[in-house]
Amino acid sequence: MSSVYFLSYIIKEFKAQYSPVTRLKELMYKAGVREVVEEGDVVAVKTHFGSQGGFRIVRPIFLGKVVEVVKELGGKPFVTDTCRPPALDYLEIANIEGINHLSVGAPVLIADGLRGNDYRLVKVNGEIIKEVEVASAIYEADAMIVVSHVKGHRMAGFGGALKNLAMGCTAKPGKRRVHDVLGGEPPVWREEKCTRCGACVAACDHKAIYFKNGKIVVDEEKCVKCYRCVWVCPNRALVWNRRGVERFLKAIAEAAAAVISTFKQGKILYLNFVCDVTVACDCTPWSTNPLIPDIGILTSRDVVAVEKASLDLINETQGIPGQTLPGRIDVLPAKVNKFLEVHGIDPYIQVYHAEKLGLGKLDYKIIEI
């Protein structure tokens, strides 16, 4: 049984010493960060930089505390993510979100290079994929702290540490490789529903969708099948094929396994922020209100255990009324699989497959600090 350490967002007393910001370092030390980070290690602090218009990412003040711990242990940290828009544009987004060298106390860089093509090809004995392109800066790091905002996801059910590894630590060709198992089809345009508002064109970080003679055109060479355009379309004029969803969830776990394999055993610590639990991922150019009250921060050296504990706590919690997708369920009650209810996709599939791959244990015990 794996240990998952828990820091509640409900503070014991109204004093600074009980703030989650203050106590995050204590949480990390309890979880064994001393065994993860050694003197002289180059340490990737992997997070998500967010998107222009979105704001529910892990706040820079927490990233700064993670960096402080790495430095205390003699490590050399850098805060990182991989390309969605080109690197320079994405670094500007990170700066707008407040993530920069001044705020976090470490260099902020894009792990897969200027255009998302700097990677090392890593083999994986997966059911769905056999190799994946791991971002070079992740591959070359000695240790990693994976800082994940747990939230819903239209195609994966939810995004936590596994998705942060599988998509956030792979280069653009790796992202495409995993997304392609959804069916390998670009979005389908339904002309009769389209008002030519241009929301899809503006939302595409890959410049894969554009108007030509009043019609929407999708460039299949550039399209990575992220379906962000489908998300933002106000008229449902773009649709995607869900037939490969289970394969996609398994491919996420397998890509995560490839990333993990590039580190020595025990050199990764996972921090799951179970707060601001929104419907959609942090890639969207907007943020919804949370589905549930904030729970806290979970950490473990076992990715399967920390993911399952995060989902279990979310599902045990009573939802906040009126915070789901427009026109959908008003409130999600306690003791239901919330992301399955919202998206029709069981998020546990990726967790169970990760356990099958030997990435960790489903059985866990929560230790509250």
Number of strands: 16
Percentage beta strand: 15-25%
Number of distinct helices: 14
What is the architecture of the largest domain at the second tier of CATH?
Answer: 3-Layer(aba) Sandwich
Helix and strand pattern = EHHEHEHHEEEHEEEHHEHEEHEHEEHHHE
Q: Which outline best applies?
A: globular
Mean pLDDT: 93
**Strand pairing plus helix content: what structural class?**
alpha/beta
Search tags:
two-stranded antiparallel sheet, single chain, alpha/beta, 369 residues, Rossmann fold, 20% strand, eight-stranded mixed beta sheet
Provide a short characterization of the protein structure.
The protein is α/β, with parallel strands linked by helices and 369 residues long. The chain is built from 14 helices and 16 strands. β2 (42-46), α3 and β3 (76-81) form a beta-alpha-beta unit.
What layout of secondary structure does this protein have?
Elements: E1 2-8, H1 20-30, H2 33-36, E2 42-46, H3 60-72, E3 76-81, H4 87-96, H5 101-104, E4 108-110, E5 119-123, E6 131-135, H6 136-140, E7 143-149, E8 151-153, E9 157-159, H7 161-166, H8 172-180, E10 188-189, H9 199-203, E11 209-212, E12 215-218, H10 228-232, E13 238-239, H11 245-261, E14 268-274, E15 296-300, H12 303-316, H13 338-343, H14 348-356, E16 364-368
Parallel strand pairs: 1-16, 2-3, 2-7, 3-4, 7-14
Antiparallel strand pairs: 1-15, 5-6, 8-9, 10-13, 11-12, 14-15
